[in-house]
Write a structure and sequence with these properties.
By secondary structure, the chain is an alpha+beta fold. The chain is built from nine helices and 18 strands. Strands 17-16-15-14-8-13-12-9-18 form a nine-stranded mixed beta sheet. Strands 5-6-7 form a three-stranded parallel beta sheet. It has a two-stranded antiparallel ribbon with strand order 1-2. Helix 4 packs parallel to helix 5, helix 5 packs antiparallel against helix 9 and helix 7 packs across helix 9. The two termini are about 30 Å apart.
Length: about 375
Amino acid sequence: MGYRQHLVRSVLAIRDEGGLALPDGRRVQVEPVLVGRNEAKLRDIAERHDVKRWSTDLDAVLADDEVSVYFDAQITATREEALTAAIDAGKHVYTEKPTATTVEGALALARRAREAGIVAGVVHDKLYLPGLLKLRRLVESGFFGRVLSVRGEFGYWVFEGDLQPAQRPSWNYREEDGGGIAVDMLCHWNYVLENLFGKVRGVSAKAVTHVPRRWDETGEPYDATADDATYATFELDGGIIAQVNSSWCVRVHRDELVEFQVDGTEGSAVAGLRRCVAQHRANTPKPVWNPDLAVPEDFRAGWSEIPDNADFDNGFKVQWEEYLRDVLAGRPHAHDLMSGARGINLARLGLESSARRRWVEVPELSL
């Protein structure tokens, strides 16, 4: 993710276009400094992409006055410490999520950023997907009438690593390293739900480890200590009910790897990564339940494709551009560290709900 989406398709793409375009027509160039643990890998990436600077010493880079923004795409367990160091060094920070492993840590980061007066941003990539941008268009137009429910399906089969190499890193399946699909994905679903439909006020979830044994990058077996599937129900503002299944143990029989169906009094829609289809009340068929006869309706045929009506750039790149413009303007970024704190708060409450087998209220967070 850090290499493909953030470096190659976002920062380097902005650089290769001549820099960040500003509203007044000017462009401000960006120049990345790569930081990591493996000198050989850093050198290889830098040479392949004409990146002039790289380092294995984060403290030295943070002490450099020419560096103005720190971006973090490390494993979750190391993120809070690095972000704290960057904020203390006076750097603006932009980060993947979860922003910390605990709610207290996430709130401490938000408080620290506010006191330091820096511009902080958290990656909210799902909001910038073409499918969800079209869904937002429907929401803002009032197409749904009163929204009743949201149903989401996310996931795919992640190979265990024995017969075929796993397509996700092994730390994702170790709780001690910050892994687990609840911590990963409930952070996403929190910002999707609160930005499109309303804040989450309650959660009931079940987190499970379906596959307890996996094989790591060296081919060695290990015990999976983190959940690999979470089945969650949320109550939102206005009484909207959302159900979202997240699983790395599911084989896909959907058009896309993630899909959301929204049902309202006036219409419904199904949105994925890129596509969005809708059905208005006036076009809704009237099926009759009869298990003894074949269903005569072609239900999919009654849905209309929502047109693009715009050119959709890479969502990660678009948010990078928004964040950097906010840094240059010295204004807060819409998706800040408090949003990140609300994400990990929902994830932790979801895990609490699972452990206690009960509904859990989601309180407001404040600094």
